[in-house]
Amino acid sequence: MGMHDYIGIKLEMSFCPKWVFEAACGHAVSEFLSRQIDLNTVSSGYAAALSSFYQNINPTEVASVIEQVLRFLDDLDAGESAAPLAIGFCYNKISFEQPNKPRKLRGLLGSADDPVKSREHSAEGAVKSFKAYVYALRNEVAEFAPSGWKLSDVEESEVFQKLATQKISPLDFL
Known about the structure:
174 residues; 55% helix; mainly alpha; single chain; disordered N terminus
């Protein structure tokens, strides 16, 4: 097996897991709501950070999730609870595979945020997941993030550490 064979395998298996994309988009919504940064800058920053671990993520896809989630939150008249809903979604995506089933981020054979073989994420899927989270919250099947929880608390994941520590500035994407 030559070097090119290995590179081919690496590229084949380098897609972002659905839950990682969705958690990142939830955090991007929260960043957009809590910091005075434009949509383009936020989506470009998150897409670039994810693309450093996985096959290219398009900023317009991240922007589409943010816009649709914001529209949904506006329809709900979420107001002050918009950012906590976005962070709660991010927290739940990272912490649980499904309600009451904790996600193991580190295992014997790697990490839960390791790349997957085929593309499984989409903007539509992320928006659908966010809406499902809000309804699960209403039905008391899901919960908000614990008070004071931050993305940087997810120490077991290089991906989330990079997203948590990136300093997004409009000047980065001019």
